[in-house]
Design a protein that fits this description.
Layout (H helix, E strand, L loop, with lengths): L1 E6 L3 H10 L4 E7 L2 H5 L7 E5 L4 H11 L3 E4 L6 H14 L3 E3 L12 E3 L2 H8 L5 E4 L15 H4 E5 L3 H10 L6 E3 L6 H11 L1 E7 L7 H11 L2 E5 L10 H12 L6 E6 L10 H9 L2 E4 L1 H4 L8 E4 L3 H10 L5 E6 L9 H7 L4 E5 L4 H9 L7 E4 L8 H6 L2 E6 L4 H11 L6 E6 L7 E6 H4 L8 E6 L20 E2 L2 E2 L5 H11 L6 E5 L5 H9 L4 E6 L2 H13 L5 E5 L14 E4 L6 H11 L4 E6 L2 H14 L1 E9 L2 E6 L2 E6 L3 E9 L4
Parallel strand pairs: 1-2, 1-4, 2-3, 4-5, 6-11, 7-8, 7-10, 8-9, 10-11, 12-15, 12-16, 13-14, 13-15, 17-18, 24-25, 24-27, 25-26, 27-28
Antiparallel strand pairs: 18-21, 19-20, 19-21, 22-23, 28-32, 29-32, 30-31
Length: 662
Amino acid sequence: MYNICVFAGTTEGRAVVEFLSGQPVQVTACVATEYGELMLPEKENITVSVKRLDENEMACLFQEQAYDLVIDATHPYAYEVTENIKGACDRTETPYVRLLRSGSAASNDAVFLKDIPAVVDFLNQENGVVLLTTGSKELAKYKDIRDFEERVYARVLPTESSLQSCRDAGVKLSHIIAMQGPFTEEMNVATLKSIGASFMVTKDSGDAGGFDEKVKAAKEAGARMLVIGRQIKEEGLSLSEVLKLLSERFSFAYQPEVVVAGIGPGNMAAMTQEVLDAIKEADCLIGAKRMLENKKAPHQGCFAAIAPDMIRQIIDEHPEYRSFTVLMSGDTGFYSGTKKLLDALKGCQVKVLPGLSSLAYLAARLNISYEDAYVTSLHGRDHDIIPDVKSHKKVFVLVGGENGIGRLCRTLCDGGLKDVAVHVGEQLSYDEEKLTSGTAEELKDRTFASLSAAFIINDHPDQIVTQGLPDSAFKRGESEGNVVPMTKSEVRSVSLSKLRLTADAVCWDVGAGTGSVAIEMALQAKDGTVYAIERKEDACALIEENSRNLRAANVVTVAGTAPWCCEELPAPTHAFIGGSSGNMKEIISLLIKKNPDVRIVATAITLESVSELTACMKAFKFKDSEVVSMTVASSRKAGPYHLMMGQNPVYIYTFQYPEVTA
């Protein structure tokens, strides 16, 4: 087993120890304080040493333990400790790596001073309260600041050694702020304002050391930053590079940490704090180019990608990054690419964070609820929205593409819905946000942003949910000199009930005629597809016309003779056979070959068809079979009277689960 020593006095050092805690390696984690020990993971392969070591003590430790590698992750200003570690490694010929903390960009009015005496000299020329945030170890060096007792406050760790250093330096008890970080911008602002600080003294401890939070807080509180600059320019590796080195040198398994974050409508003000933290803390950001704008920090990697395979490729090709945050528009569970991405991220440590959906955001902007809304999307997908709007009082829709809202409104007008109300939200959450309301007719010629969302309100929806369109709803026409055959309403209703359709059914209607059964199938199976199979060309044209008129966009017309024209069709879950042209056995054989569990309903009027279906029922030995004889009579007015006119008797066969596939 490998043996590694980590001087882990920083956030980055603790991250290295955390990484090594899951690897086949023995780790010695060296820290100088009990507080540092508390921050380390408690694992069997981790031994913690809480002691300040000089160079000789380090050399003895390295010689005794024969480390395969020593990682120096001490604070950037712990110059003496770093020199001691380097010296001990040289003396014992132990491999050494310096882990560097990245610096941060200070505000323009910050004053950089080379050391503490320079800070004292500067403050002696100025008036105002001073907040020291450089720790307790060197507090005594600030004692020469003019009016030290009254002007100087010290923020230190809440440990006995830190408090003793404050007392030794002469810091008043009421001026000691004993707190444990990390400190947020808000906490820093509150501290500065509570003491009326004019100056904040700090070191450039990098992002992980909370330097950015100090910069922002000083600006907010009106305090000037005095930054003690680094005295030497170090050479070493970043945290990501150290992890990559460990993985390559010792063949450690590296499981990337990936956060999939929903960023809501897009403006950072509309993001959750959890998502903001994930963006800030990531080593690398991945997302669409527009999502990455103004979100990347100087220390972060950044790649524009949206395809799941490309995102996974980026992660695999960059093990130097320890953690990734993938930005997803809107909410990760609402018409998001997250579902496909999760399949591509197998083998990674994945955490999914929700975002504010455009559905919730727009509803709030319009002061309406959305629990009763039908939700759909036209962004990047083909979908006929007319049936949705006709059958629901409230529809929410995501819209994409150039002036997609205009196209949507024109579609509504073409579908007889020109008077429905359309409430459009553009550039939601941004300064350019715009809300527009009007009827579909009023908005159809206006121009809208490519990414928009809308609520469509139909005060008079058609809420019928069962089959039962009247025969008059279908255009008949002639084929080869005869009226195109059509399954009548009552037979159609019974046949459809026998089919037991599901919302996502894949249906075949063999011998579709006018398409009456196919269209009613399609209106029931809104999320599925219906293949209307018809050998006569003029009947095929009629099917397409009726499908357009009745807004059954999920009907696909297949011209040809069954079963031979059906070989390439998807396997059906349900099939209706209204006409077979004498090929009944061959049609049923193909259906069963495509899907042994297919549910089949067939109708017969002629005795020959009855004989053919009965023979098939016997030949295939269906476990679930039924025959219904149906005779329908409907009223017809004759002068002042109504007569019941009988239709031809119809036999309805239902088949499922064959024992043989003859």
